[in-house]
């Protein structure tokens, strides 16, 4: 069978000593930048790009890829232990992961995150190996109308399923939408909400928003509490999940793997969108959704599985078509071009050892990461277990370096501070920032696709119901609303009864 | 007469003094690391070209040349930073055709002037554009595409890598020269624009040779015309603009090195000479050739003339097609 022959080529390439070494370097570095809030894979890969001149193409790509998916593992450690997203894709892991840590189950949360990531990563890599070509074609069949319906479904579901006050969730989502509109409009070229500042012309960077609202806002809020009530649990507790944990977590892991694999292929998708989507799905499917936010293991297992699967499959558009789907993949294009490899559909045929070597190395990297993250988790924890008076300045410093390094822009650092103050305000007002982030990500994409769909249909809105994919998504949206209406009514009654 | 001669003499000696100090300066230069501002994030075509020249220039000058990626606002942020830098020869800027000849025609709030803020050193590389179609259309030549578009005006759509980019203006130039109407659909960059072409969302795409060559080679889409004077070894079957009867369609996305205005002439000349040596090195052509990038070289005056001519051309195209930013 072709697949096995290809995988054999891959193993042969991936298991040479030098490739193994660079894989190990990549995933270790990835875990490190993942653990440190602020520093992300984009900045790290950008900084390491010049160094790869001296490596062979396979070594370079294997190392850089390792940094990307390694960061997905590391990011969850910080999210669970300190309630700061080490990585933007681990934002949702904060919600239940940190709640578990406060219940003294930090070890289990870390364990299930690592195991879930490994299982999902392995499944996603198998998918990449077996079906990258048809999957890439599936991604191509997504037109602007289908994207719009998908994003609408995501946004409405986020608001409806949000925790706590519905009105606040709606307000947060709308604020996110508005923030997302800042910058030059793709279709008309008009500047919106930029106040004439060229630094705002490309919009506000997601790193700025997430570091500000989650990182700095959280630190300010924590300074009000005394250190004895530290949210950082020094005792990890047992690391391996119990039989009951596995029973609860295996389905979310599989669903997360599926969801992450699909969303990872779509342009603009990848790890972050996958984890959000998985959290929403798990919360919806749970028999007792009120456990979410209070330390539900499903809320850790699903998103962690999804973000790792998404990180793996976002290589598909790059490897199969030569088209990068996010900033990290754009850097991978750069790494290939440094070595004179033009990314495109021809790479698979012309350089099979590179193509399959990279895919197999991703699985090898996942094995290494499981080893790095389970027995050695203590080392990463110790990195975060330093006292607050040392830890907080260090985190702030890393946040600043991380934000600065995205665009080499001081303006972004100042903006992060502003969003830090906003984040503190939101915590004080008990507003959940997750819908804000989702609105911020999905809003501009929705607008772009809505207007592109209308442009291509020459102004005929029926395109949203005549395309089968779009129609299916819109029907699902209707179903979600109908299913959730009883809950909405109940919430409103509860709200009234509080008065 | 005598007085004017004295003044002349004094001016001459002053001039000699200035020349001498310039020469001394140039002899000392460079005595510390240089910076090359690149207007795009690491990883793209501009970054590849910038890093290569930075690397080669550091070998030639004996001082490190550090690449400073300053992306944003469609290259305006980098241009502004370069325009404000001290004219001491330690800040170089990788200018793009978009930055110096397209953006100034579209935006009225730029804080740099493409012709007076910088001293051009030399053009260093160029990438031609390609017009490609997918299976939605039957056209196998540019003539057939034009005939098809004439038969149903506005029904055929083309994707560009963004509003007010060179891909977009190149497409508008084609429409104008061929006298046809295509629906312009802008995307956020080349990757989604080509995905749209591959997926059949649009019928035509105008983008760089670097981006389109692999897709055409793999038979996913058909290349109908290349906007350069010569055919490319990457796509030997694709005819040039002149061959399809539209010689004025010739245009390219170029990169060049500029320094802040008032940088000493001796430094500009030294840089120009080094760039000339690098551009003529066989290694450079080999390095860039696979990506469809052609190494270029010319005098500072030739570069200034290129900027002037392209400013005028894209200004006319933008006004005719009513392309604006802001």
Please describe what this structure looks like:
- The complex is a heterodimer of chains A (499) and B (326).
- With 499 residues, chain A is an all-alpha fold.
- Chain A has one domain.
- Chain A contains 22 helices and 2 strands.
- In chain A, strands 1-2 form a two-stranded antiparallel sheet.
- Chain A is globular.
- The C terminus of chain A is likely disordered.
- In chain B, helix 6 links the parallel strand 5 and strand 6.
- Chain B folds into 2 domains: 189 residues, Bordetella uptake gene, domain 1 (D-Maltodextrin-Binding Protein, domain 2, 3-Layer(aba) Sandwich); 122 residues, 3-Layer(aba) Sandwich (D-Maltodextrin-Binding Protein, domain 2).
- In chain B, 46% of the residues lie in helices and 19% in strands.
- In chain B, strands 1, 2, 3, 4, 5, 6, 7, 8, 9 and 10 form a 10-stranded mixed sheet that branches.
- Chain B is α/β, with parallel strands linked by helices and 326 residues long.
- In chain B, helix 2 crosses helix 9 and helix 6 packs across helix 11.
- Chain B contains 11 helices and 10 strands.
- Chain B is globular and about 65 Å long.
Secondary structure: elements and pairs:
The complex is a heterodimer of chains A (499) and B (326).
Chain A: H1 2-14, H2 17-35, H3 41-48, H4 57-82, H5 91-102, H6 106-140, H7 144-160, H8 166-181, E1 183-184, E2 191-192, H9 206-224, H10 243-265, H11 271-285, H12 298-313, H13 315-321, H14 327-338, H15 347-350, H16 352-373, H17 377-384, H18 388-407, H19 410-428, H20 434-456, H21 463-466, H22 468-498
Antiparallel strand pairs in A: 1-2
Helix pairs in contact in A: 1-16, 2-4, 2-16, 3-4, 4-5, 4-6, 4-12, 4-14, 4-16, 4-17, 5-6, 5-12, 6-10, 6-12, 6-13, 6-16, 7-8, 7-20, 7-22, 8-20, 9-18, 9-19, 10-11, 10-12, 11-12, 18-19
Chain B: H1 2-28, E1 34-38, H2 45-61, E2 65-69, H3 76-84, E3 91-96, H4 97-106, E4 118-133, H5 142-151, E5 157-160, H6 166-178, E6 183-186, H7 190-198, E7 204-208, H8 209-217, E8 222-226, E9 252-260, H9 265-280, H10 282-289, E10 294-295, H11 300-321
